[in-house]
């Protein structure tokens, strides 16, 4: 069973090194935006960050033996449960990417609860714990 | 799989976990708009750290953690993330900017 899986995986890798759709950063960000937009009523959006050299073990071993430095990148994957997309950023372009990424998240993660700034309590149950009658609780 | 309740603890342990095994550690974010829930996970496939929230202010904190991981993963585990964490500068006063003009 495992042997079969490995073969299929390796064949898949030939035309798609990571086994997923690998995009340039900007198209990835556009697709990610789309994922958020289409999963407001139900579903989830997962984003995974992982360090990767985007090279196979074989390639890495060859490079190490040859004394070549292996360049690592930050691999970013996103999925809505149906489709998976990915991209990678390196040391030179991660700052630009993270700024755009932050903007997208800020714009779309709007269902989280906002809280009054002075209130450091997590919920109504914690009211009595603090005991401070600084401001009347308006909940 | 216990959820860590302290954000700072989650960040510190996550960075430690990554630095101990940069090749295996991954950082996962799951957002469910319909439930208004955000779950973060950092794991090296042995240990698993999780944080969950429904608070908007945690999303702001997460932005910093995102930047930390982008930096660590793109530049390497030795990368200096001090300027990214801004942990010491919780007030977020832009003391570095605006040398001349104090308004």
UniProtKB/TrEMBL annotation, chain A:
SUPFAM superfamilies xref list: Signal recognition particle alu RNA binding heterodimer, SRP9/14 (SSF54762)
Places the protein is found: Cytoplasm
Signal peptide boundaries: none
Pfam family, one: SRP14
Compositional bias segments (type: Basic and acidic residues): 122-133
Stretches the record annotates as Disordered: 112-139
A GO term for molecular function: endoplasmic reticulum signal peptide binding
GO biological process: SRP-dependent cotranslational protein targeting to membrane
Biased amino acid composition, Basic residues: 112-121
Transmembrane portions of the chain: none
Keywords for the protein's UniProt record, in alphabetical order: Cytoplasm, Ribonucleoprotein, RNA-binding, Signal recognition particle
Cellular compartments per GO CC: signal recognition particle, endoplasmic reticulum targeting
Subunit structure: Heterodimer with SRP9; binds RNA as heterodimer. Component of a signal recognition particle (SRP) complex that consists of a 7SL RNA molecule of 300 nucleotides and six protein subunits: SRP72, SRP68, SRP54, SRP19, SRP14 and SRP9.
Described purpose of this protein according to its UniProt entry: Component of the signal recognition particle (SRP) complex, a ribonucleoprotein complex that mediates the cotranslational targeting of secretory and membrane proteins to the endoplasmic reticulum (ER). SRP9 together with SRP14 and the Alu portion of the SRP RNA, constitutes the elongation arrest domain of SRP. The complex of SRP9 and SRP14 is required for SRP RNA binding.
Family label: Belongs to the SRP14 family.
Protein name as catalogued: Signal recognition particle 14 kDa protein
Taxonomic source organism: Lithocarpus litseifolius
UniProtKB/TrEMBL annotation, chain B:
Renumbered residue ranges of the record's region Disordered: 84-103
GO biological process, one term: SRP-dependent cotranslational protein targeting to membrane
Highest taxon, organism lineage: Eukaryota
Main location: cytoplasm
Entry-linked InterPro entries: Signal_recog_particle_SRP9/14, SRP9, SRP9-like, SRP9_dom
Annotated SRP9 domain residues: 5-66
GO molecular-function terms, A-Z: 7S RNA binding
Compartments reported by the entry: Cytoplasm
Pfam families: SRP9-21
A cellular component term, taken from the record's GO annotations: signal recognition particle, endoplasmic reticulum targeting
Keywords: Cytoplasm, Ribonucleoprotein, RNA-binding, Signal recognition particle
Protein family (similarity comment): Belongs to the SRP9 family.
Function statement: Component of the signal recognition particle (SRP) complex, a ribonucleoprotein complex that mediates the cotranslational targeting of secretory and membrane proteins to the endoplasmic reticulum (ER). SRP9 together with SRP14 and the Alu portion of the SRP RNA, constitutes the elongation arrest domain of SRP. The complex of SRP9 and SRP14 is required for SRP RNA binding.
Protein name: Signal recognition particle 9 kDa protein
Organism lineage string: Eukaryota, Viridiplantae, Streptophyta, Embryophyta, Tracheophyta
